[in-house]
Amino acid sequence: MLENLPQADTVMAAGEYLQRFTTCERYSIDPADDRYYPMDEQFDASWGVQFRGTCDDSGDGWIRVFKTSDMTRFQTAYKADIAERMKTNELAGVHGGFAVGKDFAVIAPDDDTIRDLSASGLLVLNCNPNFKPQVDVSTAPASVDGCVLTDEFVQS
Q1: Are 152 and 133 in contact (CB under 8 A)?
Q2: Where are the alpha helices (DSSP H) in 24-142?
Q3: Residue 98's beta-bridge partner residues?
Q4: Cα separations (Å) of 55 from 37, 52, 73?
Q5: pLDDT (tens digit per residue) in 25-78
Q6: Could you tell me the pTM of the whole model?
Q7: Helix residue spans in the chain (DSSP H)
Q8: Burial of residue 151 (number of CB atoms within 10 Å: 0-12, 13-18, 19+)
Q9: 17: how many CB neighbours lie within 10 A of its CB?
Q10: Does 128 have pLDDT greater than 90?
Q11: End-to-end Cα separation, the chain, in angstroms
Q12: H or E segment and range at residue 123
């Protein structure tokens, strides 16, 4: 399961990979692009994000792509984020948040994109201890204790 995780040497390669599975139109790595989430930039260093990309999905949202230099660092930051959010909502992130490869992560904005990503070879990073996978779902240990990677792409 883990040996088949997709890898992208660049954030552009990650976008090209996504375009094989999703409607990822007008892919951009320009930080001045108005589709970027300004709040993401403040987390880049602490999450190990080197570059970001974004594209339009088939709905009204944007797919966000994060190229990381250190997936363990990224997963550690995500686990800490979930722990903080669980202080007010014990089910925070219980369905995962990021679809991850070996060196990039993706946020899908809607159910159609989530469904498309389920065929991509990416796995869902889940760090909520309340996560209970369904019977037919595969899981594998993530890089960080307390997190798992799963092929359960849950729709909202």
Answers
A1: yes
A2: 38-41, 44-47, 71-85, 111-117
A3: 125
A4: 12, 11, 25
A5: 999 999 888 888 777 777 888 999 999 999 998 777 899 999 999 999 999 999
A6: 0.91
A7: 11-19, 38-41, 44-47, 71-85, 111-117
A8: middle
A9: 21
A10: yes
A11: 25
A12: strand 123-126
